[in-house]
Amino acid sequence: MLLPIRPICNRKKTRKDGTSLIQIQYCFSAESKTLLNTGIAIPPNFWVKKSLSISEKLPPGYGNAEVLNAELKKMLRITEDIVEYATKNKISDRVAFTKKTFRPDLDVFTIGQQINTVVSQKPGDKLDLYSQIDDYIKAKKKTVTPRMIRVYENMRDTLKAFEVFRRKPITFDDFDFNFYEDFVEYMMYDHVLRRRKVVIKGFKVSTIGKTIKQLRIFLRNRMRKKIIPPINLEDFKILDEETDAIYLTWDDIIRIYNADLFGHPHLDKYRDLLVFGCLTGLRFSDLSNIHAEDVRNGMLYKKQEKSDHWVVIPLRDEARHIFTSKFNKHVPLITNADFNYYIKEVGKLSGLTQLIKFSHKKGNQDIINVKPKYAWITSHTCRRSFCTNEYLAGTPVDLIMKISGHKSLRDFYKYIRITQEEAGQKIKELWQQRGAMALVNPHELQCIK
Asked: Model pTM greater than 0.70?
């Protein structure tokens, strides 16, 4: 017999990264039931069906099992309180009410008050904000990648969290400069980042800018369709901040490639994929999805998932060796979370331990982080390393962009990470190529040398 409210993890529905979403199932009857999104995803093998919980053996890259199980219990209590509220208030369609009301971050101690504020509009109301966002996302599924769908969903979920925080429903009438300022301030200081082992509040500036950008695009779409009246969005500025990120130099890549991983055989495939990524410049979504037929005549032919454009990448001998001999023409199945976790171990064993300081803005404050270089390595480091190393080697930018798939110089130069010393050396090399300026005679220059 099914429990009325319980967490489930569908092993048959796995995502591209090999994880399955944990959902809360609410069964009012055999015919009337719904699934609620917890936002927690794990490899399905680590779901313990008997205890309806996450195994304590969950790899660290997917989060802390104890913390995630505590979050699940909290969401179960939230669901129970919503159902109890619906029962006491004699709401006829409890399933639909629960589906619309549930938020993973609802406060169970003031849930009655929050339900009264959050659920204020009738289901199916044409101008309900979230119904419109869901309709927008549904229409986009045929034309954009799954990655972009997740971007739209993150924008929607952040709005929902802000709605709960301010204890007042958000409608289309709210979108003015005051709303913009309050929303940005909330994202900067009060939004609780999910799937973290410790409580972290506040997005980085770049994430806030991305959320505002997607909100503006959505609102303009609704205006063009004449679903809502015109809204002045001139003051909805898209905040931006240059992202601090490392790249791996050729010396770093050589050290990683030749690193002694004796005693750590599980790291071999992560090391090889990291080097292969630095030699091809692919995003992880493309890097982890290469097949034997994609490589022919020493070239890699790949249709990029994000841009939906084809790129043709010449393979260095080292890249061909990794793909043919080490991968046996089949890239190992690795999740992005595992890759990001284990390549830091690879970097540490390779001796990339020099301390690097980065900072980001939070309001008018500079938040400074100092970590060893290996701790800054992520899957995106591969792409930055390829672009930066080719740029420093003198490869024409337009040719690099043909391989990297960048559409604009502005986007491309965001990937270039060089130090002041490297920039100075690059200018010096260009001066040497141009020759002397002939301000003094060659004999005098020889004397200076």
From this structure: no
